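Dear colleagues,

As part of the handover before I leave the project, I'm documenting each prediction I ran so the next person doesn't have to rerun anything. This entry is a single chain, and its sequence is reproduced below.
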Amino acid sequence: MASPAEAEAVFAELSRRGQRIARIAGDLPLRANLSAQENVALGHALRSGTTLQTAMPGALALLQEAGYAETAGLRDDALGEQARFAVKLARALMSGADTLVIDRPGKMLADSLYPPFVRNLLQRMAGHCGHVWIIDYSWNRPLYGEWADEDGAAGKS
């Protein structure tokens, strides 16, 4: 787990090394005119230059693996906060980034006990995650317990 200030330096270093970063954050919304499945497919289509339709089967597979296949046809306004987060995670994973950054999950999961939710979701998706960073405020560190290590990483590295 890293504070927002610490994260800036980390991202600069990762970019300098040529790492591809995918970020999940409250200020990176889903496209309101697309379904959940289309939003996930968009991550791959934009990075790979393929069409949205080509990426749709992989997007559905990721939603199924996350446990949110029933959201595939829903748009953003019909999703609860946990489903919305899962769709954002699947979209980030579909982009093929080397490093996943989850920026202040509590802002996106205000009505959830979010550290266990995020940890369990990442564990289900572990085969698709490289290094995972969680950016959060220092006062939230106790919420993560031993799951967040000292260098800022949480989950799988």
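Confidence is low (pLDDT under 50) at residues 150-157. The longest strand covers residues 99-103.

All the best with the project,
I.
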